[in-house]
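COMPLEX REQUEST
Ligand: pyridoxal-5'-phosphate
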Amino acid sequence: MRAHEAGALHGDIGHHGPAWLRPPEDINALLDQLWPATARRDADGVLNVGGIDVRTLAQEYGTPAYVLDEDDFRARCRAYRDAFSDASGGGADVFYAGKAFLCKAIVKIIAEEGLRLDVCTGGELAVALAAGFDPAKIGLHGNNKSLPELTRAVRAGVGRIVVDSHDEIDRLAGLADELGVRPKVMVRVTVGVEAHTHEYIATAHEDQKFGFSLANGPGSGPGSGPGAGGAAAEAVRRILTGVGKDRLELLGLHSHIGSQIFDTSAFEVSARRVLGLHAQISEEYGVELPELDLGGGFGVAYTTQDDPLPPSDISRQLAKIVEHECGAFDLELPRLSIEPGRALVAPSVFTLYEVGTVKDIALDAGATRRYISVDGGMSDNIRTALYDASYSATLASRASEAPPALARIVGKHCESGDIVVKDEFLPADLVVGDLVAVPGTGAYCRSMASNYNHVPRPPVVAVRNGEARVIVRRETEADLLRLDVG
Ligand SMILES: Cc1ncc(COP(=O)(O)O)c(C=O)c1O
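STATUS: Structure written out below.
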Protein backbone atom coordinates (compact mmCIF):
# COMPACT_ATOMS: atom_id res chain seq x y z
CA MET A 1 0.00 0.00 0.00
CA ARG A 2 1.31 3.47 -0.84
CA ALA A 3 1.15 5.65 2.24
CA HIS A 4 -0.76 8.92 2.25
CA GLU A 5 1.64 11.75 3.08
CA ALA A 6 -0.30 12.52 6.22
CA GLY A 7 -0.18 8.89 7.31
CA ALA A 8 -0.73 5.46 5.85
CA LEU A 9 -4.49 5.20 6.30
CA HIS A 10 -5.38 8.87 6.24
CA GLY A 11 -7.72 8.56 3.30
CA ASP A 12 -9.36 5.26 4.33
CA ILE A 13 -12.94 5.85 5.39
CA GLY A 14 -14.30 2.29 5.21
CA HIS A 15 -15.97 1.37 8.49
CA HIS A 16 -17.15 -2.23 8.19
CA GLY A 17 -13.79 -3.85 8.75
CA PRO A 18 -12.34 -6.40 6.37
CA ALA A 19 -14.59 -9.14 4.98
CA TRP A 20 -12.83 -11.88 6.98
CA LEU A 21 -13.41 -10.22 10.35
CA ARG A 22 -16.49 -11.58 12.13
CA PRO A 23 -17.87 -10.59 15.54
CA PRO A 24 -16.57 -13.28 17.90
CA GLU A 25 -18.97 -15.67 19.60
CA ASP A 26 -17.08 -15.18 22.85
CA ILE A 27 -15.35 -11.81 23.12
CA ASN A 28 -13.18 -13.10 26.00
CA ALA A 29 -11.94 -16.24 24.22
CA LEU A 30 -8.22 -16.61 23.54
CA LEU A 31 -7.76 -18.53 20.30
CA ASP A 32 -4.96 -21.10 20.47
CA GLN A 33 -3.39 -20.08 17.18
CA LEU A 34 -3.03 -16.44 18.32
CA TRP A 35 -1.81 -16.72 21.90
CA PRO A 36 1.26 -18.24 23.54
CA ALA A 37 0.71 -21.65 25.12
CA THR A 38 0.48 -20.56 28.76
CA ALA A 39 -1.90 -17.63 28.10
CA ARG A 40 -5.31 -18.05 29.73
CA ARG A 41 -7.91 -16.03 31.59
CA ASP A 42 -7.80 -16.54 35.33
CA ALA A 43 -10.86 -16.86 37.56
CA ASP A 44 -11.31 -13.06 37.52
CA GLY A 45 -11.16 -13.01 33.72
CA VAL A 46 -7.74 -11.36 33.68
CA LEU A 47 -5.20 -12.42 31.06
CA ASN A 48 -2.53 -14.51 32.72
CA VAL A 49 0.69 -15.73 31.09
CA GLY A 50 3.53 -17.78 32.51
CA GLY A 51 1.51 -17.88 35.73
CA ILE A 52 1.40 -14.06 36.08
CA ASP A 53 -1.57 -11.73 35.84
CA VAL A 54 -1.07 -8.92 33.30
CA ARG A 55 -2.24 -6.31 35.84
CA THR A 56 0.73 -7.29 37.99
CA LEU A 57 3.04 -7.06 34.98
CA ALA A 58 1.67 -3.60 34.11
CA GLN A 59 2.12 -2.42 37.68
CA GLU A 60 5.67 -3.70 37.99
CA TYR A 61 7.03 -2.96 34.55
CA GLY A 62 4.70 -0.32 33.16
CA THR A 63 3.08 -0.23 29.73
CA PRO A 64 3.60 -0.61 26.90
CA ALA A 65 5.61 -3.78 27.41
CA TYR A 66 6.44 -6.78 25.28
CA VAL A 67 5.67 -9.94 27.26
CA LEU A 68 7.53 -13.11 26.26
CA ASP A 69 6.15 -16.52 27.26
CA GLU A 70 9.51 -18.23 27.68
CA ASP A 71 8.15 -21.78 27.81
CA ASP A 72 6.21 -21.19 24.61
CA PHE A 73 9.32 -19.86 22.84
CA ARG A 74 11.45 -22.76 24.04
CA ALA A 75 8.79 -25.24 22.91
CA ARG A 76 8.69 -23.72 19.42
CA CYS A 77 12.49 -23.91 19.16
CA ARG A 78 12.43 -27.57 20.15
CA ALA A 79 9.50 -28.38 17.86
CA TYR A 80 11.36 -27.02 14.79
CA ARG A 81 14.67 -28.60 15.84
CA ASP A 82 13.15 -32.05 16.41
CA ALA A 83 10.84 -31.95 13.40
CA PHE A 84 13.67 -31.15 10.98
CA SER A 85 16.17 -33.56 12.46
CA ASP A 86 13.56 -36.35 12.38
CA ALA A 87 12.45 -35.65 8.82
CA SER A 88 15.68 -34.88 7.06
CA GLY A 89 17.68 -37.90 5.89
CA GLY A 90 20.86 -35.86 5.46
CA GLY A 91 20.56 -34.14 8.86
CA ALA A 92 19.30 -30.64 9.53
CA ASP A 93 20.11 -27.43 11.38
CA VAL A 94 17.64 -24.79 12.47
CA PHE A 95 19.09 -21.28 12.44
CA TYR A 96 17.11 -18.73 14.43
CA ALA A 97 16.95 -15.57 12.27
CA GLY A 98 18.15 -12.95 14.74
CA LYS A 99 16.65 -10.12 12.71
CA ALA A 100 13.22 -11.10 14.07
CA PHE A 101 14.26 -10.21 17.63
CA LEU A 102 17.66 -10.48 19.23
CA CYS A 103 18.98 -9.86 22.72
CA LYS A 104 21.37 -11.77 24.94
CA ALA A 105 18.64 -13.72 26.75
CA ILE A 106 17.20 -14.92 23.43
CA VAL A 107 20.67 -15.96 22.27
CA LYS A 108 21.16 -18.00 25.46
CA ILE A 109 17.75 -19.66 25.13
CA ILE A 110 18.30 -20.72 21.53
CA ALA A 111 21.75 -22.08 22.47
CA GLU A 112 20.16 -24.13 25.26
CA GLU A 113 17.51 -25.42 22.87
CA GLY A 114 20.11 -26.58 20.33
CA LEU A 115 19.52 -24.00 17.60
CA ARG A 116 22.03 -22.13 15.49
CA LEU A 117 21.88 -18.41 14.80
CA ASP A 118 21.70 -16.15 11.77
CA VAL A 119 22.91 -12.59 12.08
CA CYS A 120 23.07 -10.01 9.33
CA THR A 121 25.06 -7.09 10.73
CA GLY A 122 28.04 -6.41 12.94
CA GLY A 123 25.60 -5.30 15.65
CA GLU A 124 23.71 -8.59 15.65
CA LEU A 125 27.03 -10.46 15.65
CA ALA A 126 28.16 -8.38 18.65
CA VAL A 127 25.01 -9.38 20.61
CA ALA A 128 25.56 -13.07 19.77
CA LEU A 129 29.21 -12.97 20.81
CA ALA A 130 28.43 -10.95 23.97
CA ALA A 131 25.99 -13.70 24.97
CA GLY A 132 28.74 -16.30 24.52
CA PHE A 133 27.18 -18.04 21.50
CA ASP A 134 29.48 -20.55 19.77
CA PRO A 135 30.71 -18.65 16.66
CA ALA A 136 30.93 -21.92 14.72
CA LYS A 137 27.14 -22.10 14.93
CA ILE A 138 26.60 -18.59 13.55
CA GLY A 139 25.72 -17.74 9.95
CA LEU A 140 26.33 -14.23 8.65
CA HIS A 141 23.98 -12.76 6.06
CA GLY A 142 23.67 -9.41 4.38
CA ASN A 143 23.91 -7.82 0.96
CA ASN A 144 26.50 -5.23 2.01
CA LYS A 145 28.71 -6.62 4.72
CA SER A 146 31.53 -4.17 5.33
CA LEU A 147 35.17 -5.19 5.48
CA PRO A 148 35.25 -4.57 9.27
CA GLU A 149 32.12 -6.73 9.69
CA LEU A 150 33.61 -9.53 7.60
CA THR A 151 36.96 -9.24 9.37
CA ARG A 152 35.33 -9.53 12.76
CA ALA A 153 33.22 -12.48 11.65
CA VAL A 154 36.17 -14.34 10.13
CA ARG A 155 38.38 -13.60 13.16
CA ALA A 156 35.63 -14.82 15.49
CA GLY A 157 35.36 -18.05 13.46
CA VAL A 158 31.73 -17.83 12.33
CA GLY A 159 30.53 -21.10 10.84
CA ARG A 160 29.30 -19.72 7.53
CA ILE A 161 29.13 -16.51 5.59
CA VAL A 162 26.36 -16.33 3.02
CA VAL A 163 28.00 -14.43 0.18
CA ASP A 164 25.81 -12.03 -1.71
CA SER A 165 28.00 -10.26 -4.29
CA HIS A 166 31.22 -10.52 -6.26
CA ASP A 167 32.62 -7.63 -4.21
CA GLU A 168 32.12 -9.72 -1.10
CA ILE A 169 33.83 -12.76 -2.65
CA ASP A 170 36.82 -10.51 -3.40
CA ARG A 171 36.79 -9.08 0.14
CA LEU A 172 36.67 -12.53 1.69
CA ALA A 173 39.43 -13.88 -0.55
CA GLY A 174 41.59 -10.93 0.52
CA LEU A 175 40.81 -11.60 4.17
CA ALA A 176 41.68 -15.28 3.74
CA ASP A 177 45.17 -14.24 2.60
CA GLU A 178 45.52 -11.60 5.27
CA LEU A 179 44.33 -13.71 8.20
CA GLY A 180 45.58 -17.08 6.97
CA VAL A 181 42.16 -18.71 7.29
CA ARG A 182 39.74 -20.37 4.88
CA PRO A 183 36.24 -18.96 5.56
CA LYS A 184 33.29 -21.27 4.97
CA VAL A 185 30.77 -19.72 2.61
CA MET A 186 27.41 -20.37 1.02
CA VAL A 187 26.20 -18.67 -2.16
CA ARG A 188 22.90 -16.84 -1.85
CA VAL A 189 20.89 -17.77 -4.91
CA THR A 190 17.84 -15.80 -5.99
CA VAL A 191 15.67 -18.44 -7.54
CA GLY A 192 12.96 -16.35 -9.18
CA VAL A 193 10.31 -17.29 -6.63
CA GLU A 194 8.59 -14.59 -4.64
CA ALA A 195 6.33 -16.04 -1.96
CA HIS A 196 4.04 -14.41 0.53
CA THR A 197 1.12 -16.06 2.29
CA HIS A 198 -0.67 -18.49 -0.05
CA GLU A 199 0.51 -16.97 -3.28
CA TYR A 200 3.79 -17.01 -5.03
CA ILE A 201 5.10 -15.96 -8.37
CA ALA A 202 7.78 -17.85 -10.17
CA THR A 203 9.72 -15.87 -12.76
CA ALA A 204 12.97 -16.23 -14.64
CA HIS A 205 14.49 -13.07 -13.22
CA GLU A 206 14.68 -11.43 -9.82
CA ASP A 207 14.72 -7.66 -9.61
CA GLN A 208 15.95 -7.25 -6.05
CA LYS A 209 19.11 -6.49 -4.11
CA PHE A 210 19.80 -9.90 -2.56
CA GLY A 211 21.91 -12.69 -3.91
CA PHE A 212 22.96 -14.01 -7.30
CA SER A 213 20.30 -14.71 -9.88
CA LEU A 214 19.90 -18.17 -11.36
CA ALA A 215 18.73 -16.62 -14.60
CA ASN A 216 21.10 -16.21 -17.47
CA GLY A 217 22.13 -12.63 -17.90
CA PRO A 218 24.69 -10.07 -17.06
CA GLY A 219 25.05 -11.31 -13.50
CA SER A 220 25.53 -9.08 -10.53
CA GLY A 221 28.91 -7.54 -10.91
CA PRO A 222 32.22 -7.46 -12.69
CA GLY A 223 33.43 -10.88 -13.64
CA SER A 224 29.96 -12.38 -13.91
CA GLY A 225 28.68 -13.49 -17.25
CA PRO A 226 25.94 -15.38 -19.02
CA GLY A 227 25.71 -19.14 -18.91
CA ALA A 228 23.63 -21.94 -17.37
CA GLY A 229 22.92 -21.07 -13.74
CA GLY A 230 23.41 -17.38 -14.50
CA ALA A 231 25.10 -15.12 -12.00
CA ALA A 232 24.86 -17.76 -9.27
CA ALA A 233 26.87 -20.28 -11.31
CA GLU A 234 29.44 -17.61 -11.99
CA ALA A 235 29.76 -16.87 -8.26
CA VAL A 236 30.30 -20.58 -7.65
CA ARG A 237 32.93 -20.69 -10.42
CA ARG A 238 34.82 -17.78 -8.89
CA ILE A 239 34.78 -19.47 -5.47
CA LEU A 240 35.79 -22.94 -6.69
CA THR A 241 38.24 -22.11 -9.45
CA GLY A 242 38.78 -18.33 -9.44
CA VAL A 243 39.79 -15.90 -6.74
CA GLY A 244 38.25 -18.09 -4.03
CA LYS A 245 40.17 -21.25 -4.98
CA ASP A 246 41.97 -22.59 -1.88
CA ARG A 247 40.91 -19.43 -0.05
CA LEU A 248 37.18 -20.05 0.49
CA GLU A 249 35.39 -23.29 1.36
CA LEU A 250 32.04 -23.59 -0.40
CA LEU A 251 29.51 -25.33 1.87
CA GLY A 252 26.51 -25.05 -0.38
CA LEU A 253 23.74 -22.95 -1.87
CA HIS A 254 21.27 -20.79 -0.02
CA SER A 255 17.86 -19.42 -0.96
CA HIS A 256 15.19 -17.45 0.86
CA ILE A 257 11.95 -16.78 -0.96
CA GLY A 258 9.83 -14.58 1.29
CA SER A 259 7.87 -14.44 4.51
CA GLN A 260 4.49 -15.47 5.90
CA ILE A 261 4.37 -18.56 3.66
CA PHE A 262 1.56 -20.97 4.55
CA ASP A 263 2.20 -23.89 2.24
CA THR A 264 5.24 -25.54 0.76
CA SER A 265 4.49 -25.28 -2.96
CA ALA A 266 6.76 -22.26 -3.42
CA PHE A 267 9.57 -24.13 -1.63
CA GLU A 268 9.06 -26.95 -4.12
CA VAL A 269 9.77 -24.63 -7.06
CA SER A 270 12.66 -22.97 -5.30
CA ALA A 271 14.25 -26.24 -4.12
CA ARG A 272 13.96 -27.67 -7.63
CA ARG A 273 15.72 -24.65 -9.08
CA VAL A 274 18.45 -24.44 -6.50
CA LEU A 275 19.10 -28.18 -6.60
CA GLY A 276 19.39 -27.88 -10.37
CA LEU A 277 22.42 -25.68 -9.80
CA HIS A 278 23.64 -28.00 -7.04
CA ALA A 279 23.54 -30.86 -9.60
CA GLN A 280 25.23 -28.75 -12.25
CA ILE A 281 28.09 -28.02 -9.83
CA SER A 282 28.47 -31.71 -9.11
CA GLU A 283 28.70 -32.44 -12.84
CA GLU A 284 31.03 -29.58 -13.76
CA TYR A 285 33.41 -29.65 -10.81
CA GLY A 286 32.91 -33.14 -9.40
CA VAL A 287 31.97 -31.53 -6.06
CA GLU A 288 28.83 -32.54 -4.17
CA LEU A 289 28.19 -29.59 -1.92
CA PRO A 290 27.51 -30.86 1.62
CA GLU A 291 24.81 -28.36 2.61
CA LEU A 292 21.63 -26.70 1.36
CA ASP A 293 19.84 -23.80 3.05
CA LEU A 294 16.19 -23.15 2.17
CA GLY A 295 15.86 -19.98 4.28
CA GLY A 296 12.95 -18.96 6.46
CA GLY A 297 9.51 -17.56 5.89
CA PHE A 298 7.17 -20.00 7.64
CA GLY A 299 3.92 -18.19 8.40
CA VAL A 300 2.41 -17.35 11.78
CA ALA A 301 -1.11 -16.37 12.82
CA TYR A 302 -1.71 -12.68 13.37
CA THR A 303 -5.48 -12.93 12.98
CA THR A 304 -8.17 -15.61 12.72
CA GLN A 305 -7.62 -15.76 8.97
CA ASP A 306 -4.08 -17.21 9.33
CA ASP A 307 -3.67 -20.95 9.74
CA PRO A 308 0.01 -21.92 9.93
CA LEU A 309 1.30 -25.41 9.24
CA PRO A 310 2.79 -27.28 12.21
CA PRO A 311 6.60 -27.70 12.03
CA SER A 312 6.20 -31.47 11.59
CA ASP A 313 4.22 -30.93 8.37
CA ILE A 314 6.63 -28.31 7.05
CA SER A 315 9.68 -30.47 7.78
CA ARG A 316 8.15 -33.58 6.24
CA GLN A 317 7.12 -31.76 3.08
CA LEU A 318 10.43 -29.92 2.65
CA ALA A 319 12.45 -33.10 3.27
CA LYS A 320 10.31 -34.93 0.70
CA ILE A 321 10.91 -32.23 -1.89
CA VAL A 322 14.68 -32.30 -1.32
CA GLU A 323 14.76 -36.11 -1.40
CA HIS A 324 12.75 -36.18 -4.61
CA GLU A 325 14.97 -33.65 -6.37
CA CYS A 326 18.21 -35.27 -5.15
CA GLY A 327 16.86 -38.64 -6.30
CA ALA A 328 16.11 -37.21 -9.74
CA PHE A 329 19.67 -35.87 -10.06
CA ASP A 330 21.21 -38.92 -8.35
CA LEU A 331 22.77 -36.77 -5.63
CA GLU A 332 23.60 -37.44 -1.98
CA LEU A 333 21.19 -35.71 0.40
CA PRO A 334 22.82 -32.49 1.58
CA ARG A 335 22.54 -31.37 5.21
CA LEU A 336 19.53 -29.11 5.26
CA SER A 337 19.24 -25.80 7.04
CA ILE A 338 16.29 -23.54 7.59
CA GLU A 339 16.14 -20.05 9.10
CA PRO A 340 12.81 -19.29 10.74
CA GLY A 341 12.66 -16.10 12.75
CA ARG A 342 9.07 -15.09 12.98
CA ALA A 343 7.70 -18.64 13.31
CA LEU A 344 9.85 -19.18 16.40
CA VAL A 345 9.33 -15.94 18.28
CA ALA A 346 6.33 -13.98 16.95
CA PRO A 347 3.62 -16.11 18.61
CA SER A 348 5.44 -16.22 21.97
CA VAL A 349 5.09 -12.48 22.61
CA PHE A 350 2.22 -10.05 23.06
CA THR A 351 2.35 -6.33 23.64
CA LEU A 352 0.53 -4.98 26.65
CA TYR A 353 -0.84 -1.44 26.37
CA GLU A 354 -2.97 0.81 28.54
CA VAL A 355 -5.92 2.58 26.98
CA GLY A 356 -5.59 6.36 27.20
CA THR A 357 -8.58 7.65 25.23
CA VAL A 358 -11.70 6.24 23.58
CA LYS A 359 -13.21 8.32 20.80
CA ASP A 360 -16.15 7.62 18.52
CA ILE A 361 -15.72 9.41 15.22
CA ALA A 362 -18.74 10.04 13.02
CA LEU A 363 -18.29 8.72 9.49
CA ASP A 364 -20.52 8.95 6.44
CA ALA A 365 -24.07 7.57 6.48
CA GLY A 366 -24.43 7.77 10.24
CA ALA A 367 -21.66 5.24 10.91
CA THR A 368 -19.03 5.73 13.56
CA ARG A 369 -15.56 4.36 14.11
CA ARG A 370 -14.25 3.81 17.62
CA TYR A 371 -10.63 4.92 18.04
CA ILE A 372 -8.91 3.44 21.06
CA SER A 373 -5.63 5.21 21.77
CA VAL A 374 -2.94 3.28 23.59
CA ASP A 375 0.31 4.40 25.18
CA GLY A 376 2.60 3.07 22.41
CA GLY A 377 2.07 2.77 18.67
CA MET A 378 4.16 2.81 15.52
CA SER A 379 7.37 3.20 17.54
CA ASP A 380 6.87 -0.28 19.09
CA ASN A 381 5.05 -1.87 16.15
CA ILE A 382 5.77 -0.37 12.75
CA ARG A 383 4.47 -3.37 10.83
CA THR A 384 0.91 -2.11 10.46
CA ALA A 385 2.01 1.20 8.94
CA LEU A 386 4.93 -0.31 7.00
CA TYR A 387 3.43 -3.50 5.61
CA ASP A 388 -0.29 -2.92 6.09
CA ALA A 389 -0.06 -5.84 8.51
CA SER A 390 -3.15 -7.06 10.37
CA TYR A 391 -3.18 -7.83 14.07
CA SER A 392 -5.71 -8.93 16.68
CA ALA A 393 -6.29 -7.68 20.22
CA THR A 394 -8.13 -8.52 23.40
CA LEU A 395 -9.22 -6.70 26.53
CA ALA A 396 -6.64 -8.07 28.95
CA SER A 397 -7.27 -6.60 32.40
CA ARG A 398 -10.76 -8.05 32.80
CA ALA A 399 -13.39 -10.11 31.04
CA SER A 400 -16.46 -8.34 29.73
CA GLU A 401 -20.11 -9.22 29.18
CA ALA A 402 -20.59 -6.28 26.80
CA PRO A 403 -21.37 -6.85 23.11
CA PRO A 404 -18.53 -6.64 20.57
CA ALA A 405 -17.87 -3.25 19.00
CA LEU A 406 -15.65 -2.75 15.97
CA ALA A 407 -12.66 -0.63 16.98
CA ARG A 408 -9.33 0.61 15.71
CA ILE A 409 -6.38 0.63 18.09
CA VAL A 410 -4.10 3.59 17.45
CA GLY A 411 -0.91 4.85 19.03
CA LYS A 412 0.17 8.16 20.55
CA HIS A 413 2.38 9.38 17.71
CA CYS A 414 1.90 12.46 15.58
CA GLU A 415 0.84 10.56 12.45
CA SER A 416 -2.63 9.55 11.41
CA GLY A 417 -1.14 6.33 10.04
CA ASP A 418 -0.04 5.43 13.57
CA ILE A 419 -2.25 2.36 13.76
CA VAL A 420 -1.53 -0.77 15.77
CA VAL A 421 -4.62 -2.86 15.00
CA LYS A 422 -6.67 -1.65 12.07
CA ASP A 423 -9.89 -3.51 12.84
CA GLU A 424 -10.85 -5.63 15.80
CA PHE A 425 -13.97 -6.42 17.78
CA LEU A 426 -13.48 -5.36 21.39
CA PRO A 427 -16.04 -5.16 24.17
CA ALA A 428 -18.27 -2.10 23.85
CA ASP A 429 -17.64 -1.19 27.50
CA LEU A 430 -13.86 -0.82 27.08
CA VAL A 431 -12.73 2.30 28.95
CA VAL A 432 -9.73 4.44 29.71
CA GLY A 433 -7.35 2.59 32.04
CA ASP A 434 -8.18 -0.87 30.66
CA LEU A 435 -5.27 -2.96 29.46
CA VAL A 436 -5.33 -4.39 25.94
CA ALA A 437 -2.99 -7.07 24.62
CA VAL A 438 -1.92 -7.50 20.99
CA PRO A 439 -0.60 -11.03 20.25
CA GLY A 440 1.99 -12.08 17.69
CA THR A 441 4.39 -9.19 18.32
CA GLY A 442 7.55 -11.18 19.01
CA ALA A 443 9.05 -10.71 15.55
CA TYR A 444 9.96 -7.48 13.80
CA CYS A 445 8.36 -5.28 16.49
CA ARG A 446 11.04 -4.67 19.16
CA SER A 447 13.72 -5.27 16.50
CA MET A 448 12.21 -2.56 14.27
CA ALA A 449 11.19 -0.26 17.14
CA SER A 450 12.17 3.40 16.93
CA ASN A 451 12.26 6.47 19.13
CA TYR A 452 9.86 8.38 16.90
CA ASN A 453 8.51 11.40 18.80
CA HIS A 454 11.17 10.60 21.40
CA VAL A 455 9.04 7.86 22.86
CA PRO A 456 11.28 5.46 24.82
CA ARG A 457 11.18 1.89 23.56
CA PRO A 458 9.28 -0.61 25.77
CA PRO A 459 10.94 -3.37 27.80
CA VAL A 460 10.79 -7.06 27.02
CA VAL A 461 9.67 -9.04 30.04
CA ALA A 462 10.06 -12.82 30.02
CA VAL A 463 7.59 -14.77 32.14
CA ARG A 464 7.89 -18.38 33.24
CA ASN A 465 6.52 -20.48 36.11
CA GLY A 466 5.04 -17.49 37.94
CA GLU A 467 8.21 -15.39 37.67
CA ALA A 468 9.00 -12.42 35.48
CA ARG A 469 12.39 -11.06 34.47
CA VAL A 470 13.26 -8.08 32.33
CA ILE A 471 15.42 -9.21 29.43
CA VAL A 472 15.52 -5.81 27.70
CA ARG A 473 14.82 -2.87 29.97
CA ARG A 474 12.63 0.09 29.11
CA GLU A 475 14.45 3.04 27.60
CA THR A 476 14.51 6.16 29.69
CA GLU A 477 14.60 9.82 28.78
CA ALA A 478 18.25 9.70 29.89
CA ASP A 479 18.83 7.03 27.21
CA LEU A 480 17.18 9.29 24.65
CA LEU A 481 19.40 12.21 25.61
CA ARG A 482 22.61 10.16 25.88
CA LEU A 483 23.47 10.43 22.19
CA ASP A 484 22.40 14.06 21.93
CA VAL A 485 25.71 15.83 22.48
CA GLY A 486 24.24 19.33 22.14
C1 LIG B 1 17.82 -14.73 4.56
C2 LIG B 1 16.69 -14.75 5.51
N1 LIG B 1 16.53 -15.81 6.32
C3 LIG B 1 15.52 -15.88 7.20
C4 LIG B 1 14.61 -14.85 7.32
C5 LIG B 1 13.53 -14.99 8.34
O1 LIG B 1 12.26 -14.91 7.81
P1 LIG B 1 11.01 -15.11 8.76
O2 LIG B 1 11.25 -14.33 10.00
O3 LIG B 1 9.86 -14.58 7.98
O4 LIG B 1 10.94 -16.57 9.03
C6 LIG B 1 14.72 -13.73 6.50
C7 LIG B 1 13.72 -12.65 6.57
O5 LIG B 1 13.48 -11.87 5.71
C8 LIG B 1 15.79 -13.66 5.57
O6 LIG B 1 15.96 -12.61 4.77
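REMARKS: The longest strand covers residues 349-362. Residues 141-340 form a domain with the TIM Barrel fold (CATH 3.20.20.10).
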